[in-house]
Amino acid sequence: MRQPHLSSVVERRLLVNYRVAPDVAARLLPEPLRPQLVHGHAVAGICLLRLGSVRPTWAPKVFGLRSENAAHRIAVEWDGPDGVEAGVYITRRDSASRLNVWAGGRVFPGEHGRAGFKVHETPGRSSVAFATRDGDTQVDVTVELSDELRGSELFADLAEASRFFQDGAKGYSPTRSGRHLDGMELHTDAWHVEAGRVHSAASSFFDDPNRFPPGSAAPGLRPGNAQRSRQLAPTPDHGRRARRSTRRLKH
After folding, report:
1. What H or E segment, with its residue span, contains residue 159?
2. What pLDDT digit, counting tens, does each position of 205-250 carry?
3. Taking the CA of residue 228 as centre, how many other CA atoms within 13 Å lie in the half-sphere pointing to its CB?
4. Peptide bond into 223 cis (omega under 30)
5. Cβ(131)–Cβ(115) below 8 Å
6. How many Cα atoms are found within 13 Å in the side-chain-facing hemisphere of 211?
7. How far apart are CA 214 and CA 77, in angstroms?
């Protein structure tokens, strides 16, 4: 089956990152994926994503949709035909869009749960909270922009963090059938990352002691670690801003 190519504008992509014990992260991953380590730590996090102008690449921008979305993710690697490849394993995707929930796994890869979002943003501060309709996941994050990345136990500076996340453009997520992983690859025309300081962060996923025993997961910065990125086209002539091609990975 030919997989669709989607185009969108990433209006806001807020990454709140955690350093995780590698053995704990490994237990959450299906084969053939394994944790991608940074200075001996696995890297996991929450991606809080607002997409605009979402549409098939052939469709005019005027028909694009806008939505708030979230993903809990773990940085991973696996052995590909040409060597080790890197990306992310997305344990769960959620969206405020009914269309995304219906179309995910049907029209395009990536099954979504439904969630209600509350967002408040100023030029220097972003607050995003959501709760899933099934009651399984709740997140509440407030991040303030910072002029540089300070106190990280994962990355030496913002440039290193930016390279790490830019290289993880392939994302895989579970499917209801359990027979394969849905995959999506992000292609961007431009990449810009800003450092952030987590003012407060709560996640029922990372705060669950059955999933992450005490001491096995902690924010990548003291007191918190976040990056805010935007992927935007330098000119409108490209006809696309963030293109997402799709694939499947059997396991």
Report:
1. helix 158-167
2. 999 999 999 999 987 643 334 444 443 322 222 223 334 444 445 5
3. 23
4. yes
5. yes
6. 14
7. 25
What whole-number distance in Å separates Cα of residue 29 and Cα of residue 121? 33
Residue 96's pLDDT band (boundaries 50, 70, 90)?
A: very high
Cα gap 97→112, rounded to integer Å: 9
Q: What is the b/e burial string over 94-104, where b = at least 16 CB atoms within 10 angstroms of the residue's CB?
A: bbbbeebbebb
* CA separation, residue 244 to residues 82, 86, 190 (Å): 22, 16, 14
38: how many CB neighbours lie within 10 A of its CB? Answer: 19
- What is the C-alpha to C-alpha distance for residues 185 and 170, in angstroms, rounded to an integer? 4
Give, in order, the Cα–Cα distances in Å from 251 to each of 31, 57, 105, 194: 6, 29, 17, 36
Q: What single letter denotes the amino acid at residue 201?
A: A
Kindly state the tokens that stand for 203.
């996640």
Q: What is the separation of C-alpha 175 from the centre of its chain, rounded to a whole number of angstroms?
A: 17
Other Cβ atoms within 10 Å of 142 Cβ, number: 19
247 strand-pairing partners = 183
Which DSSP category does 210 fall into?
A: T
How many other CB atoms are there within 10 angstroms of residue 166's CB atom?
14
Q: Tell me the C-alpha distance between 228 and 14, whole Å.
A: 5
pTM, full prediction: 0.83
Tell me which residue has tokens 């540089």: 148
Beta-strand runs (E) in 57-208: 65-80, 83-95, 113-122, 125-132, 138-146, 170-174, 180-188, 192-203
